[in-house]
Amino acid sequence: MKATLVCSLAMFTLLSMTVPALPAPTKMHDTSRHLYDRVMKEFKHGDYEAALAGFKFFIQLHHKSALVANAHYWIGECQYRLGRYEEALNSFYSASRNPSSPKLAASELKIGQTFSKLGDHERARLMFDRILDQYPLSTEAELARKAIDGISPNINAHYQVDSLRNMNEALD
Known about the structure:
Layout: H1 2-16, H2 25-44, H3 48-61, H4 68-81, H5 85-96, H6 104-117, H7 121-134, H8 139-171
Helix pairs in contact: 1-3, 2-3, 3-4, 4-5, 4-6, 5-6, 6-7, 6-8, 7-8
């Protein structure tokens, strides 16, 4: 089914791109938006592999679209949900490179959450603190506060282990 979807998306996109030699900008925008929305349906239905392929395909075809940063974000979200945290981290960083992206705060939150999944609680905390600083009244800030509460015991435990290790080394 996944391969069929990707082939269908490719065929649909190729057929929908057969427009006059000088297409109106609205027509190209409509085509890219239609493909983006179609791939989002796959994501919402939980078919993350198909959505991942679809968003990558979207970026290849519509690399100048205003939706590219969003597509990078959703690629990261697919990878995150598939447990591919290192790949997700790279995708969320790609999504956060555009300062005018509507997914900027969400991308930075996901970077923190991904660091947390990877066990790098210090970097996660830095990202969450950054979100609190840059977007203090946002939904992402509220989620960052909750995430900080969740990782604080891990960070404190890490420092306690380091302190004990340093004390033991001092005694040796």
